């Protein structure tokens, strides 16, 4: 038994030196997070993270979830998940209600692992792999006068650092300019680097199909969020029209949210985020659902070292899709934009070598949190 005694939300934010944007037009001027800390009666501390607006996650946790889990056994993690979900779903079965629930789920898995002396992935099916290939996510839009040059420089730098796969942003309001920029990056990194594009759902169906055909000629591995997430019929059209893989799902939640996407094969790759879609417990179910429909599951990741570690354990226990003699394992999204919570929050930072990241092997999430970093960036 690991009886839950206390739940604390650490809302943190740090300024970004060089603000950046995607096709959404959001200028990222700060990086922040709602970090969840859960303590048990016998002194075990578990850490979790919630994706999205951190004050909203905190409000859900402090007002709705925390009072319901105090006194319960962390090992009842899925029972607790069901209870919290069924309590909240009449008021919102997607979005921040589920992000907040994700943070709790991850923290409970950290506690379970620490109480058993095992890394989380050994408790959710085991290690299909001990390391994962990662791809660098970056190539946002920063300097509007040097969009092509900055993309080439950034991509080349990732390759120099050892990355063998890179994902770049597109959606500059001109498919011609997008294409020019992707072509310049492809030429700069060469044919051996795996290259993906992410439109953050800024295109119409016909625009996505037209651009997609051009991108296929540049050997783009997947086209992420070509169109709006609400338009499932549109996703079916784009996915059928293109030979390249179409990916999406970072803004979808729970097994029920992903059910129609995978049953209709509206995407080739679904990308649930462990800090948003319902935590490790729920992403396991989403992955099973996807695999049973022949849809690949490659998680989205955007956050602190806690979210990254949770994603690594999820990836370690994710079956090869499909199993084969030399399978192509799912990739880790290793976002590279400025973020002290990814680089400084843990005693040993999570790092890549030749694009490869080791799955943590210490108990729980396998990371040690530096409380001084939480204190430094704490938001009142
Ligand atoms: Ca994305």
Automatic annotation (TrEMBL):
<dbReference type="InterPro" id="IPR013342">
    <property type="entry name" value="Mandelate_racemase_C"/>
</dbReference>
<keyword id="KW-0479">Metal-binding</keyword>
<dbReference type="InterPro" id="IPR036849">
    <property type="entry name" value="Enolase-like_C_sf"/>
</dbReference>
<keyword id="KW-0460">Magnesium</keyword>
<dbReference type="GO" id="GO:0000287">
    <property type="term" value="F:magnesium ion binding"/>
</dbReference>
<dbReference type="InterPro" id="IPR013341">
    <property type="entry name" value="Mandelate_racemase_N_dom"/>
</dbReference>
<dbReference type="InterPro" id="IPR029017">
    <property type="entry name" value="Enolase-like_N"/>
</dbReference>
<dbReference type="InterPro" id="IPR046945">
    <property type="entry name" value="RHMD-like"/>
</dbReference>
<feature type="domain" description="Mandelate racemase/muconate lactonizing enzyme C-terminal">
    <location>
        <begin position="148"/>
        <end position="245"/>
    </location>
</feature>
<dbReference type="GO" id="GO:0009063">
    <property type="term" value="P:amino acid catabolic process"/>
</dbReference>
<protein>
    <submittedName>
        <fullName>Mandelate racemase/muconate lactonizing enzyme family protein</fullName>
    </submittedName>
</protein>
<dbReference type="Pfam" id="PF02746">
    <property type="entry name" value="MR_MLE_N"/>
</dbReference>
<dbReference type="Pfam" id="PF13378">
    <property type="entry name" value="MR_MLE_C"/>
</dbReference>
<dbReference type="InterPro" id="IPR018110">
    <property type="entry name" value="Mandel_Rmase/mucon_lact_enz_CS"/>
</dbReference>
<dbReference type="GO" id="GO:0016836">
    <property type="term" value="F:hydro-lyase activity"/>
</dbReference>
<dbReference type="GO" id="GO:0016052">
    <property type="term" value="P:carbohydrate catabolic process"/>
</dbReference>
<dbReference type="InterPro" id="IPR029065">
    <property type="entry name" value="Enolase_C-like"/>
</dbReference>
């Amino acid at each position: 038994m690991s009886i839950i005694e206390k739940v604390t939300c650490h809302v943190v934010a740090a300024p970004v030196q060089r603000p950046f944007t995607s096709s959404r037009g959001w200028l990222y001027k700060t990086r922040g997070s709602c970090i969840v800390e859960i303590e048990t009666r016998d002194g075990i501390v578990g850490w979790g993270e919630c994706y999205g607006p951190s004050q909203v996650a905190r409000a859900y946790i402090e007002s709705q979830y925390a009072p319901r889990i105090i006194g319960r056994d962390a090992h009842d993690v899925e029972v607790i998940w069901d209870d919290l979900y069924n309590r909240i779903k009449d008021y919102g079965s997607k979005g921040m209600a589920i992000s907040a629930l994700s943070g709790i789920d991850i923290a409970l898995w950290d506690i379970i692992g620490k109480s058993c002396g095992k890394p989380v992935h050994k408790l959710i099916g085991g290690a299909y792999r001990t390391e994962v290939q990662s791809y660098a996510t970056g190539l946002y839009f920063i300097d509007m006068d040097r969009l092509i040059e900055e993309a080439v420089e950034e991509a080349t730098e990732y390759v120099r650092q050892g990355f063998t796969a890179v994902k770049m942003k597109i959606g500059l309001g001109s498919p011609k300019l997008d294409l020019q920029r992707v072509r310049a990056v492809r030429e700069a990194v060469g044919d051996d680097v795996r290259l993906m594009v992410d439109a953050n759902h800024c295109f119409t169906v016909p625009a996505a199909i037209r651009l997609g055909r051009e991108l296929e000629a540049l050997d783009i591995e997947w086209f992420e969020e070509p169109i709006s997430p609400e338009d499932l019929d549109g996703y079916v059209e784009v996915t059928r029209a293109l030979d390249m893989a179409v990916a999406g799902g970072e803004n979808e939640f729970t097994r029920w949210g992903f059910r129609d996407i995978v049953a209709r094969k509206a995407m080739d790759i679904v990308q649930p985020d462990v800090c948003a879609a319902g935590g490790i417990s729920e992403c396991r179910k989403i992955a099973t659902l996807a695999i049973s429909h022949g849809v690949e599951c490659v998680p989205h990741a955007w956050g602190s070292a806690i979210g990254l570690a949770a994603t690594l354990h999820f990836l370690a226990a994710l079956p090869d899709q499909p199993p084969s003699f030399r399978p192509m394992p799912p990739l880790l999204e290793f976002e590279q934009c400025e973020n002290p919570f990814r680089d400084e929050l843990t005693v040993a930072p999570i790092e890549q070598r030749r694009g490869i990241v080791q799955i943590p092997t210490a108990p729980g999430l396998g990371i040690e949190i530096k409380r001084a970093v939480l204190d430094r960036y704490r938001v009142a």
